[in-house]
Amino acid sequence: MFNAGLGPVNLHSSGNSESYQERLSRLEGDKESLILQVSVLTDQVEAQWAKISDLQSSLLGHQHKLNSTEEMLQQELLHRTSLENQKLNLLGEVSYLKLKLADMEGKQGHGAERQHKAEGLLKELRILKDKVEHLEDQKLQYEKKLKATKVKESSDLCGVSTLQYTISAHIPLLTLHSTFLNAVQSNVPFLACNSHPYRLRRTQSGGLQAVDPDVSHFRRGGLRATAGPRLTRTPESYDSTRDMNVPFSQWTKEQVCGWLEDYGLGQYVNLTRQWVENGQTLLSATPQDFEKEMGMKNPLHRKKLQLALKAFTTKVIEKSADLDYIWVTRWLDDIGLPQYKDHFHEARVDGRMIQYITVNDLLTLKVTSQLHHLSIKCAIHVLHANKFNPNCLRRRPGEEKQPSPSEVVQWSNHRVMEWLRAVDLAEYAPNLRGSGVHGGLIILEPRFSAETLALLLNIPPQKTLLRRHLATAFSTLVGHQATQEKREYGNATGHMPLTTTAKVKPKKLGFTQFSHLRKRKPDESADYICPIDSGALTVNGVSRVPSAALRGLGPALDRQAVKQEQVGIKAQTNGPKQ
């Protein structure tokens, strides 16, 4: 039994050993497969690591190329900015040269007409010279005959006397001819034949002689009061210092005509010469006389002439009178309004007219935009504060890191565009051309805000981050004081925001105002677009001298004066009635 039972026990143990062997062999096979997979994965990881290292090296190369490209882009932007600055300078120079060319063409037209008259006069004088030479030949022949024959003394004496009479009648013409030739050769203006300074008169004996023997000697730059139309005018022929020493009322006709031509009103010289006797004629004339006698239809030409004559009468020296109409056209470039240069040039608007320009004058010059009216007003404020210094506006960036409002107020339109490029808004800077935006408008006009500037720059409303960046840069530029003033003015009741499309209409008198016209004395200064005297500015009864700083220059002073005037009117209206 025991042996019989032992047999089955051994069979069972051998079956378990076989199952363990199978598992062991299976595990060994799994181990080998895992080792194979690990080796394959190791090879793949090594291959991927090589690719990663290659990608990192290529990434570094691309990063280096990107940095170099950014540097090249910055240099290109700087180069483009310099080219735009050069382009603006060249455009300004071209416009200035065009105006000079127009003036030169006008003077050339007058010079061509006078040259034609001179050529005709020269032909006549050559004919006279030939006649005189012929008479001299006859005289020599008679003298030879007289010496050779010496017969019949009485008849010979009669012939000699006749010849002397003929020669005496033509000698002044020969002298006049030689004088004219000397004048033409030396490019000195001469006089017309019908009114030359060498006046001839016939004597009782039938001969011709000169009134003044010294007049035959021609002097350069001499006074030619009785002269007719001059052929050309040289700088030596007009001495303003000499003329200013003599009262304008005593100026001769030619002095007045020469002054008109130098003053930019040369188109009225011909009619003026027929009407004016001396300077007193213009001083005692009315604007209606200017229009009727001189053909001066342009009201701004009449105003220009009136202001100049008033300066002669009052003898008040104004710095604005030193700025001619050519300077005004360049000033329009500086304040960003070059589109009006032709109208201002045709009207001959100079510095004195800028000082006394009115709203209706600007409307006559086709300036209808309310924003452009404010631009010109603030620009005149700046001129007043700088005593009409022709170089007061700054066109290029300086060395200042953070400019003060007193410096920003003198910025030109080009300088504002440079500031936009400095605050990373270079792509919108060209939109300011022709907008009238300059430093004076930004600082002095309380309604001009960052929103107004964004509209002029054509920044879309959906670009909120860009507009916020502009608002921050604008507040930093104008300073805390001006920012606070603009904010208070914008939050005031009845505030009308400044738009880019608003138009200015001419002032019209109502029916209720006609009854007061006779009682009230007209005040011309009330119509000026910028009624600031060259001296002090009165605010709330206190006299203040205008300066280039924010206070004393801004339109806020005008608003205070207007409010004070309104309070006074209300007090008079609500006062006790008698």
TrEMBL record:
<dbReference type="Pfam" id="PF26022">
    <property type="entry name" value="CC_Liprin_beta"/>
</dbReference>
<comment type="function">
    <text>May regulate the disassembly of focal adhesions. Did not bind receptor-like tyrosine phosphatases type 2A.</text>
</comment>
<dbReference type="InterPro" id="IPR013761">
    <property type="entry name" value="SAM/pointed_sf"/>
</dbReference>
<keyword id="KW-0175">Coiled coil</keyword>
<feature type="domain" description="SAM">
    <location>
        <begin position="251"/>
        <end position="315"/>
    </location>
</feature>
<comment type="similarity">
    <text>Belongs to the liprin family. Liprin-beta subfamily.</text>
</comment>
<dbReference type="InterPro" id="IPR037619">
    <property type="entry name" value="LIPB1/2_SAM_3rd"/>
</dbReference>
<dbReference type="GO" id="GO:0048786">
    <property type="term" value="C:presynaptic active zone"/>
</dbReference>
<dbReference type="InterPro" id="IPR058914">
    <property type="entry name" value="LIPB1/2_CC"/>
</dbReference>
<dbReference type="GO" id="GO:0007528">
    <property type="term" value="P:neuromuscular junction development"/>
</dbReference>
<keyword id="KW-0597">Phosphoprotein</keyword>
<dbReference type="InterPro" id="IPR037617">
    <property type="entry name" value="LIPB1/2_SAM_1"/>
</dbReference>
<dbReference type="GO" id="GO:0005829">
    <property type="term" value="C:cytosol"/>
</dbReference>
<dbReference type="InterPro" id="IPR037618">
    <property type="entry name" value="LIPB1/2_SAM_2nd"/>
</dbReference>
<feature type="domain" description="SAM">
    <location>
        <begin position="411"/>
        <end position="442"/>
    </location>
</feature>
<feature type="coiled-coil region">
    <location>
        <begin position="118"/>
        <end position="152"/>
    </location>
</feature>
<dbReference type="Pfam" id="PF07647">
    <property type="entry name" value="SAM_2"/>
</dbReference>
<dbReference type="InterPro" id="IPR029515">
    <property type="entry name" value="Liprin"/>
</dbReference>
<protein>
    <submittedName>
        <fullName>PPFIA binding protein 2</fullName>
    </submittedName>
</protein>
<feature type="domain" description="SAM">
    <location>
        <begin position="328"/>
        <end position="386"/>
    </location>
</feature>
<feature type="region of interest" description="Disordered">
    <location>
        <begin position="1"/>
        <end position="24"/>
    </location>
</feature>
<keyword id="KW-0677">Repeat</keyword>
<dbReference type="Pfam" id="PF00536">
    <property type="entry name" value="SAM_1"/>
</dbReference>
<dbReference type="InterPro" id="IPR001660">
    <property type="entry name" value="SAM"/>
</dbReference>
